[in-house]
Design goal:
5 helices; five-stranded mixed sheet; 5 strands; single chain
Length: 200
């Protein structure tokens, strides 16, 4: 079968697509790529505020027990004035007298009171971080560590949550990510250090 040619002698290519289709495919391939929209900052900001408040609360309640657990304490005796509630809701107040007689603090909260020691007038060995502390701790053994360890673990969890929910670890550029993560962790850390200094 003879080869078909154009009027000028060039062969006809059967697989050649019409010009309009070639241009259409070209246009589709070169379609501009849409830039993804930046994430909404409001959820990250809300998470930052909420987790910072949670970290501040647990740092506050853990600061005093931490110093007592590491040995910074004034030993003495607390005399129970009265208690209310029962079990986990037991709340007691009393008068703390330092062992060396340097100070007496009235109306302190008494933590770790056993059920048999909640009667008014009961004297219990206790510890305080100093005369300005509002809480005397009567718990002993492992209980003294359970007063601060879970709270500081919650503070660490809040720091990790701030890093994740604010997107600090997903920023473009290694340097920017490092600064963002460091700033996210520094917030709860500085809050904890502040309460530790205040509780000293």
């Amino acid at each position: 079968m003879p080869e078909q040619v154009h009027w000028d002698g060039t062969p006809i290519r059967k697989d050649a697509a019409p010009a309009r289709f070639r241009g259409f495919r070209l246009a589709r391939r070169r379609a501009p790529h849409r830039t993804p929209l930046p994430p909404d900052p409001l959820p990250g900001l809300a998470a930052l505020v909420v987790l910072s408040l949670v970290a501040a609360f647990f740092a506050w309640v853990s600061a005093g027990p931490f110093w007592l657990a590491v040995g910074h304490a004034r030993t003495g005796t607390v005399v129970i004035d009265g208690c209310s509630g029962d079990g986990l809701t037991l709340r007691c107040r009393g008068i703390f007298t330092a062992e060396d007689g340097r100070f007496i603090t009235h109306g302190v909260r008494v933590s770790g009171v056993p059920a048999e020691g909640s009667t008014a007038g009961t004297a219990l060995p206790a510890r305080m971080t100093g005369p300005d502390s509002g809480t005397a701790y009567a718990d002993v053994g492992v209980g003294r560590h359970l007063r601060w360890l879970p709270g500081l673990l919650v503070v660490l969890a809040c720091a990790a949550g701030i890093v994740r929910l604010t997107g600090s670890a997903r920023l473009p550029g290694r340097r920017h990510r490092r600064w963002a993560v460091a700033a996210a962790v520094a917030g709860p850390t500085l809050i904890t250090v502040g309460f530790l200094i205040a509780a000293w």
